[in-house]
Specification:
The protein has 128 residues and is mainly beta. It is built from no helices and eleven strands. A hairpin with a 6-residue loop joins β5 (46-51) and β6.
Length: 128
């Protein structure tokens, strides 16, 4: 049974930075791509970004490109989401997910299935 434990997040002013972490256990972390999603109040969960198992290939939602960076440390079974130049519209609960072999699988018509593991989410609030 894989577990994803998230940390980080909190309250920050617009223009500030936050970093989220997602530590995995129970599965061979280095074999999987990782995804980050977010859900704002009253909205559906949306794709933020994804990173290949090697850490080389990344995908980002257009609205976060150039501001957010996903990285991973396979030795620590941890993926990170560095968020810079935060905007009030970035306010959401952020979730990490693991379960797909390719980062591209988290983009486009991605539909979660029973094999996907999810973190419990961490709240990011950006004040104006």
């Amino acid at each position: 049974q894989v577990q994803l434990v998230q940390s980080g997040g909190g309250l920050v002013q617009a223009g500030g930075s936050l970093s989220l972490s997602c530590a995995a256990s129970g599965r061979t972390f280095s074999k999987y791509a990782m995804g980050w999603f977010r859900q704002a109040p009253g909205k559906e969960r949306e794709f933020v970004g994804a990173l290949s198992s090697s850490g080389i290939t990344t995908y980002y939602q257009d609205s976060v490109k150039g501001r957010f960076t996903i990285s991973r440390d396979n030795a620590k079974n941890t993926v990170y989401l560095q968020m810079n130049s935060l905007k009030p519209e970035d306010t959401a609960v952020y979730y990490c997910t693991l379960g797909r072999a390719r980062a591209a699988d988290y983009t486009g018509d991605y539909r979660p299935n029973s094999l996907d593991a999810w973190g419990r989410g961490t709240l990011v609030t950006v004040s104006s």
